[in-house]
Specification:
The complex is a heterodimer of chains A (786) and B (461). Chain A is α/β, with parallel strands linked by helices. Helix content of chain A is 42%, strand content 13%. Chain A is globular, with a radius of gyration of 27 Å. Chain B is of the alpha/beta class and 461 residues long. In chain B, a hairpin with a 4-residue loop joins strand 12 and strand 13. Classes of the chains: A alpha/beta (786), B alpha/beta (461).
């Protein structure tokens, strides 16, 4: 019976007589067979439904009660509305403000998860079309045994081939539909149930990201869990503008890869520059280290307006929707490549490449839609080579004289500053520029996130963003950095090596800088934080736009963080895992610690593993410039695993924080797995979702949130040292809650003994024990106590 | 605590590296022959508490960018101090020196390599007495059993020679004693519960001849740690009655294991990888893995990146070994344990080892019996079990003697052919009833088929 390779099977039996009975008209219909060699015992929640982990979520939400920050007081989702929800008012459907806020968070997380999952689906479908369902998944060669920790954990399956990922995607899409339906008017009414579903969205988002990344690592031969992935160029000034230049923007890498392959095939790699922005750029460098990264998503306008790119190719996600208009201004042909982002362009997928090129070069078509990555490769290269010589590098940047002229027309209405998300002092700078001093407006370049809302607001139509970028020409000329190409997963061997030091506390924590570039004071802060924590011998991970921002910094010797610190997942490493979807490897590493050190089974065993990670693994996610709905989903995925997330000030616009209450002693008890007793462990980690106003506040909070109930005394002493030291350095004082983190006198850092002992005495501190901590009663029962 | 030190002192400076261009002076290092750090326990009347002496030029009198001979002699006294603790305290010199901002300490003993940064010098760090003050305060604060302490630094090329000889002798004596000590000679072993925080049923037993799996804690270290911090994660185990000398089974160890693992581990054979082996945590340095085809063991260390002779890389086998379990034939070990005469002693020791990576074999050259050295294969000799078998037979490895005895034992594996699923397998088992399915339809989203392993006969109810 050849059933194992078939996706579905139907068996019909008209009539069967046997010893045990007669069967008539039996029809068996089976969706999918999978041969199973995996002997690990299955946990309680493989392919969990949207309520399967509700009890676990409640445990977390009980400690970290949502603190709502309504970004908008109204609900306008149905025609009953708009409904005013201020005070204690309920809307026409009966919804309360708290539920409405959570509902919006759920919507955002669903959008985020849908984006990753559909991206994963697109990648897997494309990969299967090219390489077949039986193509083996191999994210890390011999160094990685646990190839898909998140998929194993959530779905309870062990994917071995590309085709296996389809089953996982089917599940994710199914869950997503259900989650989205929850936000319909008159469905869920309780805020905590909404929150639980937010966690669920985050969890399936994490699975989706893992699917996408292990698929693309396997088929494109990206670095396989390689700590020595090559260093590649980053920055506006690394582009050889004498050559034709292609710009790729977005997240779905196949079109960019086809461009690279086409260049290779035609031996043109040295003739054409391929440059990229956002995650497509990161992933393209994982394929070829010749590709040059311009910067994170906030570099779109400034780079396009520089006039350097000759052809602009966009795929999906986080792409400015006015790029087509900007491309037109610099006379660069535009190619859209994703069904999700057609931009009103004519679909030329079925036309011959040369016809499309001709129409783009003649500017009969300013832009085209091509839904075939291979064709994109050919068209982009041919078009770039054809237009580059003709297209004068038409740029929109301004000379100093032009800047001064424009600045003079400013009427100081201050609408620009009001519209600026970072409240930059544009009017003052404009005044100074009008008087001939362009230094001040040039300085704003560092903190500008490139949204150009100022230009939209200006009644005099001054090209403010252009002025800022043009005044900073000197800076952009020096924009030349090195970033380590995304390495992908963390090796099992690395986990084994650091597991010990993490337990012993020689490594005080894992800090993951992820997410977008909506920074309050520029991306430099990300680099500074990375360096500070790497120097303190934390393990620093980066992904996505944050990984690029982390590179945009040089020390006095001209070295970037990726050159200063190694790419190994070890104390003092700065580990770029890759694009947004690669950030699933960071959560994956935390999960692998449970599997590798404690031999906890991952398979469909989410609650137990999350409890393990939450109580033992001192990891913190930092999304300093979190902007997108994807970032919301990513954070949610971390929360359900019990990993706290710190965001920058714009993160409050996600509408709610998850804050613990250190003052409520009753909130901080765990079960001791040894004795079954309830033990007070202090507020660790104190918060699950926290928005910091400043970099300094974030750094102190990161150090604090790395503490876990399970820390050994040595580990706690080291973690406390960093927390107190950062607090003293950045705020100038000893934190007033340090005593809450001392359980026994051996927890006290040796160099702070005098000060701390005094504080303990003043606060009436009592010694407690260090338990084998869990929030789950069944974990105690498992050990035969109780 | 360090107000009178011109630079900061704290754990956060531990990772600091001082490159050549940033250094003011260098002490010891590869270009200087005579350098050492040594802790000695003295009688209380031989130690002047708080005395710090520099013999030779102090930092202020040194030429910038130059390299100097360097010795640190710490003499301590205290009623509870014994000579055994010298090595343990000595290793903290490295840790505490690195607490000092702008002061980098690498390696230990006669290999030390120390640098002072220009920045620290410019801040006023002009004397080694600051190093002395830091060491004295931190060591005394950490180890209250030290009642008095004096520290002497040597930077003079002539003066250092004599003390250097003393230091070398002290290391040799200490090492000889450590290597010579046997499990039979001591009454107390030590246990370590550090890894229990990750692998809760793991019970680490540290004996003179069995280093901790992580390779970081010797019996002496265990003894010092248990004495310094009695409530800490390292504790003493009264070894009790020896129940089996060959296997290394002790009543005290069994009791401790039972208690510490909450009944999950009840017996421990210290010197065997079978039946009741020592549990394996997650941070073991290497694995001894049984190769049933040749009835011998392979060993592999954590850093080995290729597949071993059984076709599995370290990571895969580690997965089968870890988690605080007693796994037959997969045994987490430390490198130091392989240097012990008790290394898998009851399974045959090195006479049972058939394969190891070439680097490891070279590292262990002086510990492998010479007549066995060429009989142990490496990745350079063989790639597969078949090749290994031939290699061992050709060289008459002792394991070959075992082969004939068991050659007739049939394999337990039962090969499976044909379908694992058929209509007859439908769960219609209620015999005696006549079941008729009419228009029955069975749907399943996903059917999981597991290969059937050798089934045992069902017991009659």
């Amino acid at each position: 019976m050849e059933i194992l390779s078939r996706k579905s099977i139907n068996i019909k039996i008209k009539e069967l007589k046997s010893d045990i009975g007669n069967i008539k008209d039996l029809e068996l219909s089976i969706g999918k067979f999978s041969e199973e060699k995996w002997t690990e015992a299955e946990g309680p929640t493989p392919f969990p439904s949207i309520t399967a982990l509700r009890e676990w979520d409640k445990k977390l939400l009980d400690r970290y009660k949502p603190f709502y920050l309504p970004f908008c007081d109204l609900c306008c989702l149905c025609t009953y509305g708009k409904c005013d929800l201020t005070g204690n008012k309920r809307g026409a459907c009966g919804i309360h403000m708290s539920a409405q806020q959570s509902r919006t968070v759920l919507l955002a997380s669903c959008i985020g998860a849908a984006t990753h999952i559909s991206h994963a689906r697109e990648l897997v479908t494309y990969a299967i079309k090219k390489f077949g369902t039986d193509y083996p998944l191999d994210p890390g060669g011999l160094a990685v045994e646990v190839e898909a920790p998140i998929i194993r954990l959530v779905c309870g399956v062990k994917p071995e081939k590309l085709g296996d990922l389809e089953t996982v995607l089917d599940y994710l899409e199914n869950q997503l539909t259900q989650l989205l339906s929850v936000t319909h008017t008159g469905q869920e009414g309780n805020n905590l149930d909404f929150e639980s579903k937010v966690f669920h969205a985050g969890m399936i988002d994490q699975v989706g990201m893992e699917v996408a990344d292990i698929a693309q690592i396997s088929v494109f031969g990206f670095p396989k869990a390689d700590p020595d992935a090559p260093l590649v160029d980053l920055g506006m000034s690394v582009v050889d503008t004498k050559k034709p230049v292609i710009l790729v923007i977005g997240h779905n890498v196949p079109p960019a890869i086809q461009i690279i392959d086409y260049l290779k095939d035609k031996r043109l790699s040295e003739e054409v520059e391929v440059t990229g922005i956002c995650c497509t750029a990161i992933d393209a460098t994982r394929y070829s280290s010749k590709v040059k990264i311009i910067g994170p998503m906030s570099w779109q306008l400034r780079y396009i307006r520089s006039g350097i790119p000759d052809v602009i190719v966009v795929d999906e996600q986080c792409i400015r929707t006015d790029n087509l208009i900007e491309a037109e201004k610099i006379r660069a042909p535009f190619i859209a490549t994703s069904e999700k982002n057609c931009l009103g362009l004519p679909d030329r997928t079925r036309d011959s490449a040369d016809d499309i090129v001709a129409d783009l070069v003649s500017r009969k078509n300013l832009g085209v839609l091509i839904l075939d990555p291979e064709k994109v490769g050919e068209v982009a290269v041919k078009t770039a080579r054809a237009v580059a010589p003709k297209r004068k590098k038409s740029r929109t940047s301004l000379s100093t004289e032009e800047i001064i002229e424009q600045a003079k027309t400013c009427n100081q209405c201050k609408m620009c500053r009001r519209s600026c998300p970072n409240d930059l002092h544009i009017p003052d700078s404009m005044k100074a520029a009008g008087k001939g001093n362009i230094g001040m407006i040039g300085d704003m370049y560092e903190e500008c996130i490139g949204c150009a809302r100022c230009e939209q607001a200006c009644p005099e139509t001054i090209p403010i963003h252009n002025i800022i970028v043009s005044a900073a020409t000197q800076r952009t000329k020096n924009e030349s950095f090195r970033i380590r190409a995304g390495r992908g997963a963390i090796q099992d061997i690395e986990i084994r090596k650091v597991g010990g030091p993490i337990v012993l506390g020689e490594i005080p924590g894992i800090v993951a800088f992820v997410g977008c570039s909506n920074y309050p004071k520029g991306g430099k802060e990300v680099a500074e934080m990375c360096i500070e924590f790497a120097r303190r011998r934390y393990i620093v991970c980066t992904s996505g736009c944050a990984a690029m921002s982390a590179a945009m910094y040089k020390n006095e010797d001209g070295k970037t963080p990726y050159e200063l610190f190694p790419g190994t997942f070890d104390a003092g490493g700065i580990v770029n895992v890759g694009s947004c979807v690669a950030n699933s490897h960071i959560a994956g590493a935390a999960v692998k610690i449970a599997s590798i050190f404690a031999r906890r089974t991952l398979r469909g065993n989410y609650e137990e593993i999350a409890d393990y990670v939450y109580n033992r693994v001192g990891a913190v996610g930092v999304a300093w410039g979190a902007m997108s709905q994807k970032a919301a989903a990513i954070a949610s995925g971390f929360w359900r695993l019990g990993i706290p997330v710190v965001v920058g000030p714009h993160g409050t616009k996600y509408r709610r924080m998850l804050l613990g209450r250190a003052d409520r002693e009753q909130d901080w008890y765990v079960h001791d797995r040894r004795s079954g007793e309830k033990v007070y462990v202090g507020p660790v980690p104190e918060h699950l979702f926290f928005a910091a106003e400043t970099k300094e506040e974030a750094m102190v909070m990161i150090a604090k949130l790395c503490m876990r109930p399970n820390d050994t005394s040595k580990g706690r002493a080291i973690k406390l040292t960093h927390y107190i030291d950062l607090h003293r350095r950045l705020f100038g004082t000893t934190p007033d809650d340090a005593h809450l983190f001392v359980r026994t006198l051996t927890d006290i850092p040796i160099t702070m003994k005098e000060d701390l002992t005094k504080i303990l005495r003043e606060k009436g501190w009592k010694e407690t024990i260090i338990p084998d901590p869990t929030l789950l009663v069944n974990q105690v029962e498992k050990r035969g106590v109780r | 605590m360090f107000d009178d030190i011109p630079v900061e002192v704290g754990l956060i400076h531990v990772g600091e590296r001082i490159r050549k261009n940033d250094m003011y002076v260098e002490f010891g290092g590869p270009d200087i022959k005579e350098k050492f750090e040594l802790v000695r326990v003295r009688k209380s009347d031989q130690v002047t508490d708080g005395k710090i002496t520099v013999i030779g030029p102090d930092i202020s009198a040194m030429d910038p960018q130059k390299k100097y001979p360097f010795g640190i002699l710490i003499e301590i006294a205290g009623s509870q101090l014994e000579e055994d603790i010298e090595g343990v305290i000595e290793r903290r010199i490295h840790e505490y020196c690195n607490y000092i901002e702008g002061f980098m300490h690498l390696n230990q003993r006669y290999d030390i390599w120390v640098r002072l940064s220009k920045k620290a010098f410019n801040k006023g760090f002009t004397s080694l007495s600051y190093v002395g003050k830091v060491l004295e305060r931190l060591l005394k604060s950490e180890l209250p059993i030290i009642e008095s302490m004096q520290i002497t630094f040597y930077t003079d090329a002539k003066e250092i020679s004599l003390v250097y000889e003393e230091a070398k002798k002290a290391y040799e004596t200490r090492d000889a004693r450590a290597r010579g000590l046997t499990d039979e000679e001591v009454e107390v072993f030590y246990g370590c519960a550090l890894c229990q925080s990750f692998a809760p049923s793991h019970v680490c037993v540290i004996t003179p001849q069995r280093y901790a799996n992580c390779g970081a804690i010797s019996w002496f270290d265990g003894r010092a740690a248990a004495r310094i911090d009695p409530k800490g994660p390292i504790f003493s185990i009264e070894k009790g009655v020896c129940l089996d000398k060959e296997m290394g089974e002790y009543s005290g160890v069994n009791e401790s294991a039972k208690k510490r693992s909450l009944g999950e581990v009840n017996r421990v054979y210290l010197y065997s990888a079978f039946k009741y082996p020592h549990t394996s945590c997650g941070c073991f340095e290497g694995i001894a893995f049984y190769i049933p085809e040749v009835e011998g063991f392979g060993t592999v260390m954590r850093g080995y990146r290729d597949v071993t002779v059984n076709g599995l890389p370290f990571s895969t086998m580690a997965d089968s070994t870890a988690g605080g379990r007693q796994v037959d034939g997969f045994h987490g070990i430390s490198l130091e344990y392989m240097r012990s005469p008790k290394f898998l002693a009851s399974d045959g020791g090195f006479a049972r080892i058939v394969w190891m990576p070439s680097d490891l074999k070279e590292q262990l050259r002086s510990f492998i019996p010479p007549d066995l050295f060429d009989k142990i294969a490496t990745e350079k000799d063989v790639k597969t079990i078949e090749e290994l078998k031939k290699f061992l037979a050709d060289r008459e490895h002792p394991v070959c003697d075992r082969w004939e005895e068991t050659a007739l034992t049939p394999s337990e594996e039962i090969a499976l052919h044909g379908p694992v699923y058929s209509v007859g397998d439908l769960p219609i088992t209620s015999a005696g009833f006549k079941i008729i399915f009419k228009n029955a339809r069975i749907y399943a989203d996903r059917v999981t088929i597991q290969p059937v392993k050798s089934k045992k006969p069902e017991k009659e109810k």
